[in-house]
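Quick sanity check, PepSY domain-containing protein:
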Amino acid sequence: MNDKGMPSRWRRWHMWAGVILALPFLAICVTALLISHSKSLELKKIDASSRWLPGYVPERVEAKALLQLADGTLVVGGKHGLWEIRAGRAEPALTGKRIEVFQFVNAPQGVFAATSSGLYRRDASAWTKQLAGNVTTVAVLADGSLIAGEAGKLQRSTDGEHWQADATVAAALDSLPKVDPPLSLARLLFDIHTGKALLGQDGKWLWIDACALVMLMLTLSGSWLWMRGRQRRVRLAVAGA
Protein backbone atom coordinates (compact mmCIF):
# COMPACT_ATOMS: atom_id res chain seq x y z
CA MET A 1 0.00 0.00 0.00
CA ASN A 2 1.30 3.45 -0.89
CA ASP A 3 1.36 5.41 2.40
CA LYS A 4 2.10 8.65 0.57
CA GLY A 5 -1.30 8.56 -1.07
CA MET A 6 -3.21 8.08 2.20
CA PRO A 7 -3.42 11.78 3.25
CA SER A 8 -4.75 12.75 -0.17
CA ARG A 9 -7.20 9.86 -0.11
CA TRP A 10 -8.43 10.78 3.36
CA ARG A 11 -8.93 14.37 2.25
CA ARG A 12 -11.03 13.19 -0.68
CA TRP A 13 -13.12 10.93 1.55
CA HIS A 14 -13.54 13.75 4.04
CA MET A 15 -14.54 16.16 1.27
CA TRP A 16 -17.13 13.85 -0.31
CA ALA A 17 -18.54 12.87 3.10
CA GLY A 18 -19.01 16.56 3.85
CA VAL A 19 -20.68 17.15 0.50
CA ILE A 20 -23.06 14.21 0.96
CA LEU A 21 -23.97 15.22 4.54
CA ALA A 22 -24.35 18.92 3.75
CA LEU A 23 -28.05 18.59 2.87
CA PRO A 24 -29.01 16.60 6.03
CA PHE A 25 -27.03 19.04 8.19
CA LEU A 26 -28.76 21.95 6.46
CA ALA A 27 -32.17 20.39 7.19
CA ILE A 28 -31.17 19.84 10.85
CA CYS A 29 -30.02 23.46 11.23
CA VAL A 30 -33.09 25.04 9.64
CA THR A 31 -35.59 22.81 11.46
CA ALA A 32 -33.78 23.38 14.79
CA LEU A 33 -34.16 27.14 14.35
CA LEU A 34 -37.84 26.78 13.46
CA ILE A 35 -38.50 24.46 16.43
CA SER A 36 -36.73 26.88 18.76
CA HIS A 37 -39.14 29.65 17.76
CA SER A 38 -42.20 27.51 17.04
CA LYS A 39 -44.27 29.24 19.72
CA SER A 40 -43.67 32.78 18.43
CA LEU A 41 -44.15 31.60 14.85
CA GLU A 42 -47.33 29.72 15.87
CA LEU A 43 -46.23 26.64 13.93
CA LYS A 44 -48.65 24.42 15.86
CA LYS A 45 -51.54 26.25 14.21
CA ILE A 46 -50.31 25.38 10.71
CA ASP A 47 -51.57 22.13 9.19
CA ALA A 48 -49.02 19.80 7.60
CA SER A 49 -49.39 16.58 5.61
CA SER A 50 -47.33 13.46 6.35
CA ARG A 51 -48.44 11.45 3.31
CA TRP A 52 -45.43 12.46 1.19
CA LEU A 53 -42.90 11.38 3.84
CA PRO A 54 -42.00 7.66 4.06
CA GLY A 55 -41.26 7.76 7.80
CA TYR A 56 -44.92 8.23 8.75
CA VAL A 57 -47.33 5.28 8.81
CA PRO A 58 -51.01 5.13 9.84
CA GLU A 59 -51.47 4.49 13.56
CA ARG A 60 -54.41 3.30 15.60
CA VAL A 61 -56.53 5.99 17.27
CA GLU A 62 -55.26 6.68 20.78
CA ALA A 63 -57.61 5.80 23.65
CA LYS A 64 -56.28 8.16 26.32
CA ALA A 65 -59.70 8.94 27.81
CA LEU A 66 -62.70 6.60 27.94
CA LEU A 67 -66.33 6.95 28.97
CA GLN A 68 -69.32 4.67 28.37
CA LEU A 69 -72.69 6.34 27.99
CA ALA A 70 -76.04 5.04 29.19
CA ASP A 71 -76.95 3.76 25.70
CA GLY A 72 -73.76 1.69 25.52
CA THR A 73 -71.85 4.09 23.31
CA LEU A 74 -68.15 4.13 24.13
CA VAL A 75 -66.61 7.60 23.90
CA VAL A 76 -62.87 7.55 23.18
CA GLY A 77 -60.48 10.48 23.18
CA GLY A 78 -56.78 11.21 22.76
CA LYS A 79 -54.34 12.90 20.40
CA HIS A 80 -56.46 11.80 17.41
CA GLY A 81 -59.54 13.65 18.61
CA LEU A 82 -62.88 12.33 19.89
CA TRP A 83 -64.45 9.13 18.56
CA GLU A 84 -67.65 7.25 19.38
CA ILE A 85 -67.94 3.46 19.13
CA ARG A 86 -71.40 1.97 18.60
CA ALA A 87 -71.99 -1.72 17.92
CA GLY A 88 -68.32 -2.23 17.10
CA ARG A 89 -68.21 0.66 14.62
CA ALA A 90 -66.01 3.70 15.32
CA GLU A 91 -67.08 7.11 14.04
CA PRO A 92 -65.24 10.45 14.38
CA ALA A 93 -67.03 13.09 16.43
CA LEU A 94 -64.37 15.78 16.94
CA THR A 95 -61.22 15.31 14.89
CA GLY A 96 -60.65 18.63 13.12
CA LYS A 97 -57.57 20.84 13.50
CA ARG A 98 -55.59 18.38 15.61
CA ILE A 99 -57.97 18.39 18.59
CA GLU A 100 -56.54 16.47 21.54
CA VAL A 101 -58.90 15.08 24.19
CA PHE A 102 -57.63 15.05 27.77
CA GLN A 103 -60.57 13.98 29.90
CA PHE A 104 -64.28 13.05 30.01
CA VAL A 105 -66.73 13.58 32.85
CA ASN A 106 -70.35 12.47 33.23
CA ALA A 107 -71.89 15.28 35.28
CA PRO A 108 -75.49 16.18 36.21
CA GLN A 109 -75.25 18.93 33.57
CA GLY A 110 -74.31 16.42 30.87
CA VAL A 111 -71.32 14.63 29.39
CA PHE A 112 -68.31 16.88 28.92
CA ALA A 113 -64.98 16.52 27.13
CA ALA A 114 -61.91 18.60 28.01
CA THR A 115 -59.92 19.21 24.84
CA SER A 116 -57.14 21.37 23.47
CA SER A 117 -59.69 23.52 21.63
CA GLY A 118 -62.23 23.95 24.43
CA LEU A 119 -64.76 22.25 26.66
CA TYR A 120 -67.47 20.37 24.75
CA ARG A 121 -70.82 19.00 25.92
CA ARG A 122 -72.65 16.16 24.25
CA ASP A 123 -76.16 17.24 23.31
CA ALA A 124 -78.18 14.39 21.78
CA SER A 125 -75.64 13.07 19.26
CA ALA A 126 -73.64 16.28 18.71
CA TRP A 127 -70.83 17.92 20.67
CA THR A 128 -71.11 21.68 21.25
CA LYS A 129 -68.43 23.97 22.65
CA GLN A 130 -69.26 25.46 26.05
CA LEU A 131 -65.91 26.96 26.98
CA ALA A 132 -63.14 28.18 24.68
CA GLY A 133 -59.40 27.78 25.13
CA ASN A 134 -57.10 24.94 26.08
CA VAL A 135 -59.14 22.97 28.64
CA THR A 136 -56.97 20.27 30.21
CA THR A 137 -59.24 19.29 33.09
CA VAL A 138 -62.92 19.11 33.99
CA ALA A 139 -64.43 17.87 37.25
CA VAL A 140 -67.59 17.89 39.37
CA LEU A 141 -67.29 19.58 42.77
CA ALA A 142 -69.06 18.56 45.96
CA ASP A 143 -71.83 21.14 45.46
CA GLY A 144 -72.58 19.77 41.98
CA SER A 145 -70.97 22.62 40.07
CA LEU A 146 -68.40 22.10 37.33
CA ILE A 147 -64.81 23.25 37.34
CA ALA A 148 -62.86 23.36 34.08
CA GLY A 149 -59.86 24.99 32.43
CA GLU A 150 -56.10 24.70 32.77
CA ALA A 151 -53.66 25.41 35.57
CA GLY A 152 -54.12 28.97 36.82
CA LYS A 153 -57.15 29.60 34.58
CA LEU A 154 -59.96 27.57 36.15
CA GLN A 155 -63.61 28.52 35.67
CA ARG A 156 -66.75 27.37 37.45
CA SER A 157 -70.31 26.78 36.21
CA THR A 158 -73.53 25.52 37.74
CA ASP A 159 -75.33 24.76 34.48
CA GLY A 160 -72.46 23.97 32.10
CA GLU A 161 -73.26 26.97 29.90
CA HIS A 162 -72.38 30.08 31.90
CA TRP A 163 -68.85 30.23 33.28
CA GLN A 164 -66.98 32.58 35.56
CA ALA A 165 -63.48 32.69 37.00
CA ASP A 166 -63.00 30.49 40.06
CA ALA A 167 -61.09 31.62 43.13
CA THR A 168 -61.81 28.92 45.70
CA VAL A 169 -60.24 25.95 43.95
CA ALA A 170 -57.46 28.13 42.54
CA ALA A 171 -56.56 29.27 46.07
CA ALA A 172 -56.51 25.67 47.27
CA LEU A 173 -54.19 24.69 44.40
CA ASP A 174 -51.85 27.56 45.30
CA SER A 175 -51.14 25.78 48.57
CA LEU A 176 -49.43 22.94 46.72
CA PRO A 177 -45.65 23.03 47.34
CA LYS A 178 -42.96 23.28 44.68
CA VAL A 179 -41.07 20.02 44.25
CA ASP A 180 -38.26 18.82 42.02
CA PRO A 181 -39.59 17.48 38.70
CA PRO A 182 -39.38 13.70 38.17
CA LEU A 183 -36.26 13.16 36.10
CA SER A 184 -34.90 10.04 34.43
CA LEU A 185 -31.41 9.77 32.96
CA ALA A 186 -32.92 9.74 29.47
CA ARG A 187 -34.81 12.97 30.21
CA LEU A 188 -31.71 14.59 31.73
CA LEU A 189 -29.65 13.76 28.65
CA PHE A 190 -32.39 15.17 26.40
CA ASP A 191 -32.56 18.40 28.44
CA ILE A 192 -28.77 18.78 28.23
CA HIS A 193 -29.03 18.20 24.48
CA THR A 194 -31.64 20.94 24.06
CA GLY A 195 -30.06 23.33 26.57
CA LYS A 196 -33.00 23.28 28.98
CA ALA A 197 -30.88 21.79 31.79
CA LEU A 198 -28.54 24.80 31.64
CA LEU A 199 -30.72 27.72 30.51
CA GLY A 200 -34.23 26.62 31.50
CA GLN A 201 -37.36 26.28 29.39
CA ASP A 202 -37.48 29.98 28.50
CA GLY A 203 -33.79 30.27 27.65
CA LYS A 204 -33.06 27.05 25.80
CA TRP A 205 -33.69 28.78 22.47
CA LEU A 206 -30.33 30.56 22.94
CA TRP A 207 -28.55 27.20 23.08
CA ILE A 208 -30.43 25.80 20.10
CA ASP A 209 -29.96 28.95 18.00
CA ALA A 210 -26.24 29.11 18.74
CA CYS A 211 -25.63 25.45 17.86
CA ALA A 212 -27.82 25.61 14.77
CA LEU A 213 -26.20 28.80 13.48
CA VAL A 214 -22.68 27.40 13.96
CA MET A 215 -23.63 24.20 12.11
CA LEU A 216 -25.34 26.23 9.40
CA MET A 217 -22.27 28.44 8.95
CA LEU A 218 -19.94 25.43 8.75
CA THR A 219 -22.23 23.65 6.30
CA LEU A 220 -22.61 26.61 3.97
CA SER A 221 -18.97 27.69 4.16
CA GLY A 222 -17.78 24.11 3.60
CA SER A 223 -20.04 23.75 0.57
CA TRP A 224 -18.81 27.09 -0.79
CA LEU A 225 -15.15 26.10 -0.33
CA TRP A 226 -15.80 22.78 -2.07
CA MET A 227 -17.47 24.46 -5.06
CA ARG A 228 -14.73 27.09 -5.22
CA GLY A 229 -12.00 24.44 -5.19
CA ARG A 230 -13.79 22.40 -7.82
CA GLN A 231 -14.15 25.45 -10.09
CA ARG A 232 -10.45 26.27 -9.57
CA ARG A 233 -9.40 22.76 -10.57
CA VAL A 234 -11.58 22.97 -13.68
CA ARG A 235 -9.99 26.27 -14.67
CA LEU A 236 -6.49 24.87 -14.15
CA ALA A 237 -7.33 21.81 -16.21
CA VAL A 238 -8.68 23.97 -19.03
CA ALA A 239 -5.64 26.27 -18.90
CA GLY A 240 -3.26 23.32 -19.04
CA ALA A 241 -5.01 21.63 -21.95
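Posting the structure with no commentary besides this: The longest helix spans residues 204-240.
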